[in-house]
Design goal:
The chain is α+β, with helices and mostly antiparallel strands and 675 residues long. The protein has 5 domains: 53 residues, Orthogonal Bundle (Helix Hairpins), CATH 1.10.287.610; 205 residues, D-amino Acid Aminotransferase, Chain A, domain 1; 105 residues, Nucleic acid-binding proteins (OB fold (Dihydrolipoamide Acetyltransferase, E2P)), CATH 2.40.50; 146 residues, Orthogonal Bundle (DNA polymerase, domain 1); 68 residues, Rossmann fold (3-Layer(aba) Sandwich). It has 25 helices and 21 strands. Strands 12, 13, 14, 15, 16 and 17 form a 6-stranded antiparallel beta sheet that branches. Strand 15 and strand 16 form a beta hairpin. Helix 12 crosses helix 13 and helix 17 crosses helix 18. The longest helix is centred in the first third of the chain and has 23 residues. The protein is globular, with a radius of gyration of 29 Å. It binds 2-(butylsulfanyl)adenosine. 2-(butylsulfanyl)adenosine binds next to strand 3, strand 8 and strand 11.
Length: 675
Amino acid sequence: MKLADARERAGELRRLIAEHNHRYYVLNQPVISDFEFDILLSELETIEKIFPELITPDSPTMRVGSDLTEEFRQAQHRWPMLSLGNTYSESDVTDFSERVRKGLGYEPEYVCELKYDGVSISLTYEAGRLISAVTRGDGTRGDDVTMNVRTIRSIPLRITSPGALSSFTIRGEIYIPRSEFEAMNAERLSRGEAPFANPRNAAAGTIKLLDPKIVASRPLECFLYNLLGEHLPADNHFDNLMAARSWGFRTSEIIERCTGISGVLAFLSRWENERKQLTYDTDGVVIKVNSLEAQRMLGNTAKSPRWAIAYKYASEQAGTELISVDFQVGRTGNVTPVANLMPVLLAGTTVKRASLHNSDQIDILGLCYGDRVIIEKGGEIIPKIVEVDLSLRKDSAARVVFPNECPECGTALVRNEGEANHYCPNYLHCPPQITGRIVHFVSRKALDIEGLGEETIELLWSNSLIHNVADLYYLRHEQLAALDRLGNKSASNILAGLNKSLTAPYHRKLFALGIRHVGETVAKTLAAGFPNIDALISADAEVIESLPDIGPRISTSVKEYFADPDNIEIISRLKAAGMTFEGPAREMTAKGPLSGKTIVVSGSFQNFTREELKSLIEAAGGKIAGSVSGSTSFIVEGSEMGPAKRAKAAELGIKLVNEAEFLKMIKEWPLDTTM
Ligand code: IVH
């Protein structure tokens, strides 16, 4: 290779690496696998070794990828947050141990841990309290995400165990367990939102959210793997981690001290398969020299320590050909592209289809029909296309273009600002949306109506017996029994199932309506916040938004739904058929920021009626009392508060909280529960 060619290729590689780093660390939307990324990086390393004059201080071989964003305050790391050299073969691990042995003059003890696939975090404690949580950033400075990290239950906010260090830094990996991730994605899909591609992306995206309340609702976990500080309890990594565990930090049980490299290699092969049984994603093993003194002797390169290395397991990938793309319209109108592939064997199953998520994903990949694509099985069940082999693309290949019109009804598609998905707004007449809504209504998680599944709904629809969910309750036995695939028995079953559903829990009925962005959890919140559907229908957007975890996106969607006379008509026909839409007589047992508080409401309020305010308090876990007494926790004070109540409050020293302060209290849940 000539110097000029090397310079050009190095420039190209740096551009590519910078772009993929940005996609991985900032956008949380990587399009190539870690393995592919490491190949680019090692090509650049090789060029820089042959032509050292091409090395620049800002080369990605000299610096770690950065996750810094503009939204967060930045904080300096007291100890740089380095990355690890990646290897994919046992011989690289042996080479590493040789380098270590030469550097130290003896073979040290190693510690093997799994490499958790999440986002790294640096926690600083002072006087036993968590004072900051900072992402890796560019290794020197990171984003200060303390407010978000405080919501993770397994991270102690205070260290109380006797003998614990009071000031130190501890680092670890924040992740989302696989099953929680799947439940979270199912919930997103049920709300008509785009799913996350894998648990790592979900964790990385969550930790950078601007609203800690949403972060609190996400199932984040953390494993701690590195203790740093002035007077550490032990002179080696393993014992320090054990000490941290005894102070209340969550560390993995899977950690092993190995004498010599043979123990390390045995750990690698044992966990290659066993790691798949774990509840969280891991992508390799981290091998660390145990003694801190030996670590100091070996030191660091610009980017990573010489005393540790990451061995990565090959990810499960396969190459195949893209045949066509279906644009599927879901019940909320969301249009999802799904790739049809030449069948290929991947991790023991034959794969014919892969998710493409949304139009951005198609553009990022620059996908063309007939492309040779690499598919990968990540945390999710449906594999995804991670890469296109451009060298095999034919000149005549046609780009995959996301349609402008709904493939089912021809209506122009809409994409709301800030949302990744296109959807068909023809809510009333787009066939898959109508049948999809009815199928959703009868589905297991909604009203769970026996005898009615997708096929029967299609049958009823194609025979013009139903046009919406209310029609189900006006079906007659003879209409059902006369249908081809049904008979007397099925007809009776269906009618019995429909009858039973009339008394299903209120929140399930709200969920069953299929309001955009109202998944199971939101439906429960709405049902707890409004005693019946009429109160919800007439509520103002601000009142809806004052419920925990409800923002303008959801309140707008709810308001839009009830503003449609067809929906109101459906609800009144459901009611006429005997369906009730109300919660049970309220028990004050909801869990929330006001759990355990007894609250008196007095006077009148700007944003709420008194009844609405009481509903809100109950939804947030509080108990309403009619009069002020020694057990009153506080009084929500409106204008024209009664003088008797005021005097009693003063006498008993009970705090008055005005409307704005009260709203703040329930909005800041779960951070401010100190009242
Ligand atoms: S130790 C000097 N231990 O891998 C680096 N890192 O590629 C010390 N990671 O930034 C890191 N599991 O986010 C260490 N058991 C483990 C790990 C681990 C995952 C991540 C971490 C680090 C990245 C390096």
